[in-house]
């Protein structure tokens, strides 16, 4: 669902077989009724700035979560019983920096992707993501270096990020020592 200005609430609890929820460009959406009854396979939330914390905390996502707002993400992460799904994607993030709620359960997170974001830096606490095996950074032109990375990381992909690409070059790039031991590197 997308582009519905003026829509303040949505009721989906009766959609018991709903597997995926995609909400895009809903500037007035504040509340989604019935979330606590659903186990969703994937959730995509882009430009839903007024979604209330009480509502956000009810999301249960099994496989894939995509969000454009670090505020929404951290409300989810701080919710009791919320487990970060296998795939987490930060999309079109306009904030200069993001940090993850460290008390969140990241044990299922395998793949983190940052896509078309204005961030100037990656979350400094990436190292705490002990199950992370793949990191993708796409179209993030303001990121110029990598923080410490988890030892579990096996694959890193950097595309359309010229400053970061330069920092990851062997042997003299600032970030090269942080990725040298990673098995698969795609720096384009």
UniProtKB/TrEMBL annotation:
Give the Gene3D superfamilies listed for this entry: Ribonuclease Inhibitor
- Alphabetical UniProt keywords: Signal
In terms of superkingdom, the source organism counts as Eukaryota
Give the range the annotation lists for the signal sequence.
1-18
InterPro entries cross-referenced by the UniProt entry: LRR_dom_sf
The name this protein carries in UniProt is: Uncharacterized protein
């Amino acid at each position: 669902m997308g582009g519905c200005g003026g829509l303040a609430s949505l009721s989906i609890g009766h959609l018991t077989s709903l597997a995926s929820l995609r909400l895009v460009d809903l500037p007035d959406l504040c509340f989604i009724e019935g979330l606590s009854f659903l186990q969703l396979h994937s959730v995509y939330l882009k430009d839903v700035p007024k979604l209330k914390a009480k509502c956000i905390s009810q999301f249960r996502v099994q496989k894939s979560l995509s969000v454009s707002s670090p505020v929404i993400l951290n409300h989810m992460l701080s919710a009791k019983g919320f487990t970060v799904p296998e795939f987490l994607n930060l999309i079109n993030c306009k904030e200069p920096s993001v940090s993850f709620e460290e008390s969140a359960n990241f044990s299922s997170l395998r793949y983190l992707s940052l896509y078309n974001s204005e961030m100037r830096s990656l979350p400094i606490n990436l190292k705490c993501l002990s199950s992370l095996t793949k990191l993708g950074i796409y179209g993030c032109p303001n990121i110029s270096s990598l923080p410490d990375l988890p030892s579990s990381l096996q694959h890193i992909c950097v595309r359309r990020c010229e400053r970061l690409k330069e920092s990851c070059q062997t042997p003299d790039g600032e970030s090269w020592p942080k990725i040298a031991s990673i098995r698969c590197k795609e720096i384009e």
